[in-house]
Write a structure and sequence with these properties.
mainly alpha; 74% helix
């Protein structure tokens, strides 16, 4: 039982599971990249900053890619679109928290400039992906 749980936690390429197809989506890859960069930034913050804005921004950024994955696993286009809309909302929430973090001097200009191109590419790709769901039949 414990071995099975540990195997679930390992990256898919390290075990014999089939790689989920959502990992091939550029929009997912960008969302995961954004979430990981934000995680790394927040790890450097002071405890109070982590406990307030930090936890919320990590959750919202993680939610962007998690909802893309969850939507891809749905059995119909309507549910998939619903999860992509949630993902888009989570991206906007992440942007809000990034603005707050920058204004409160928790996020440096350099960090902000590194995140901006990812967000600038991710937002229209999310919309394009949303519009494409169900249109390739």
């Amino acid at each position: 039982m414990i071995l099975g749980i540990i195997e679930m936690l390992l990256p898919y390429q390290e075990i014999s599971l089939t790689k989920p197809d959502f990992e091939n989506l550029q929009v997912y890859q960008l969302a995961e990249k954004l979430a990981n960069k934000i995680w790394n930034i927040v790890q450097e913050w002071k405890q109070f900053e982590k406990d307030t804005v930090g936890k919320q921004i990590v959750r919202s950024a993680d939610s962007v890619c998690a909802n893309i994955a969850e939507g891809r696993g749905c059995f119909n286009d309507q549910d998939n679109r619903r999860f992509i809309r949630i993902s888009r909302g989570s991206l906007y929430e992440t942007i809000c928290f990034l603005r707050l973090a920058y204004t409160r001097k928790m996020l440096t200009k350099e960090q902000s400039l590194k995140l901006k191109p990812i967000i600038d590419e991710l937002s229209p790709k999310l919309n394009a992906y949303l519009n494409s769901i169900g249109n390739n039949k």
